[in-house]
Amino acid sequence: xxxxxxxxxxxxxxxxxxxxxxxxxxxxxxxxxxxxxxxxxxxxxxxxxxxxxxxxxxxxxxxxxxxxxxxxxxxxxxxxxxxxxxxxxxxxxxxxxxxxxxxxxxxxxxxxxxxxxxxxxxxxxxxxxxxxxxxxxxx
Length: 139
Hints:
The protein is of the alpha+beta class.
């Protein structure tokens, strides 16, 4: 996205892949919007200018990691850094932009959701295998 001062404070519509984030200091649910499926799953995270910290309202939250969505809301140039749990553990996510969401449109199908859930399960298993040398807790 780069530095776009003319967009600061404007209402925009942007599509990408949503990653659930932590509750912010005011109790509002958050997420991160990244331009490509798979970003933030493993270290290192994408550059801050490729991430939008999303403040959610009306009870919507991503139902799975990398859910394809189209979001409309007020975009602010407001750099942030939060710790978020990903497949490889706790990771700092730095975003240049902040979006106060007014409307959400889910772009994925039920098949997309099932595929991403299975993919996430496979990635978690692979990460654990790398960390344990393939041994399970019961071994």
